[in-house]
Design brief:
By secondary structure, the chain is α+β, with helices and mostly antiparallel strands. 25% of the residues lie in helices and 30% in strands. It binds zinc ion.
Length: 163
């Protein structure tokens, strides 16, 4: 399985200092040499954007989890990640991610495609007119739910996305 996010948002991946509520930190989606994407969190002292080959990153402050108010990562990070899944042919996660983005109305379903590469759904980002082909996959509902749960755990933000 390609999907191997570390559960993030708790401590700096470099110095292992636990974040306290209200502390600023950076979350980044970073592709490993083996093609897996991991989410890593960094305290501000250890985040060096130039050193990281990352798919997307966003600034956060550690949520006070007792308030229960948690949002998703910014739109550009979600779309970069979605594009990365498509480009790297991670069909199952790309499919589930497309469902999430359609539900959030970040993407719109257009026509279906049916060609030598297979069948699937064409989705469009109406703000930029970019479109992607999402191949059909046969995923069991409980597996969809589990991938969705991992996505939401690892792409959370406690701040409203600034679109
Ligand atoms: Zn650190």
């Amino acid at each position: 399985m390609q999907f191997d996010f570390r559960r993030g948002g708790k401590k700096c991946s470099q110095c292992e200092t636990a974040f306290s509520p209200g502390q600023a930190f950076v979350s980044a989606l970073i592709e490993q040499d083996d093609g897996r994407t991991v989410r890593l969190d960094f305290c501000c002292d250890h985040w060096r954007e130039s050193e990281q080959e990352c798919i997307g990153f966003w600034n956060q402050t550690m949520p006070d989890l007792t308030t229960g108010k948690v949002y998703w990562a910014p739109r550009d990070v979600l779309l970069s990640y979605f594009e990365h899944l498509i480009d790297s042919d991670q069909k199952e996660i790309a499919y589930v991610m497309s469902l999430v983005l359609l539900r959030k109305k970040m993407l719109t379903a257009k026509t279906r495609f049916d060609d030598e590469s297979g069948t699937g759904q064409i989705v469009v980002d109406r703000s930029t007119s970019r479109s992607w082909e999402v191949p059909d996959v046969d995923v069991a509902p409980d597996r969809i739910a589990r991938i969705q749960d991992e996505l939401s755990q690892n792409l959370f933000s406690n701040q409203l996305a600034e679109d």
